[in-house]
Design goal:
Layout: E1 2-8, E2 16-20, H1 22-25, E3 29-33, E4 39-43, E5 55-58, E6 63-68, E7 70-77, H2 81-93, E8 99-101, E9 104-108, H3 111-119, E10 123-130, H4 159-163
Parallel strand pairs: 1-4, 2-6
Antiparallel strand pairs: 1-5, 3-4, 5-6, 7-9, 7-10, 8-9
Length: 166
């Protein structure tokens, strides 16, 4: 079994593809198969979220490109920006991972949330597409929206304080 244990920058052609839905791209330990059928084990640092296009290096040196698999989603559209912002608020209030797209929001298919949004006057339709939700305000890693931010997802940084005498 091929062991994939490290994310790498890779701009050439990959030796294989690993198509995963978002739920599986959040796992740090996973046993699955490449698109070719070869069995692989994924062993990454806890908290790692894989995105479509990320590359992982195997224990034998091969590079595998991650593909965001198509999955059942709900796409939400509104007649105005205020209504779409309300939808984003209510989905966020329920800690629902949301992908912000041009003039719409997408989230994993959930008929209860779909009915709630329809009741607010939003247009909701089920679609099949890759899902790349927002990383979140405190997300770390190279996909955070503000990787250059002072904390880049780290809430507490005690390293500097520990080295200074009081």
């Amino acid at each position: 079994m091929l062991i994939l244990g490290r994310r790498v920058d890779h701009h050439g052609s990959a030796d294989g593809e690993l198509a995963l839905p978002f739920e599986q791209r959040q796992k740090s330990r996973l046993r699955t198969r490449l698109s070719s059928g070869e069995e692989v084990g994924v062993f990454l640092d806890r908290g790692t979220i894989l995105r479509g296009g990320d590359c992982l290096q195997g224990d034998d040196g091969r590079v595998v490109r991650v593909v965001a698999a198509e999955e059942r989603l709900m796409a939400v559209r509104a007649t105005n920006a205020r209504l779409l912002a309300r939808a984003a608020y209510h989905l966020g209030n329920r800690h629902t991972p949301v992908e912000v797209r041009e003039n719409e929001l997408a989230f994993a298919a959930d008929h209860v949330l779909g009915e709630m949004l329809r009741g607010m006057g939003l247009q909701v339709e089920e679609v099949t597409a890759p899902f790349e939700p927002e990383a979140g305000a405190y997300a770390a890693g190279h996909h955070a929206h503000s990787a250059d931010a002072k904390h880049a997802g780290v809430i507490h940084d005690f390293a500097q304080r520990a080295s200074k005498p009081r």
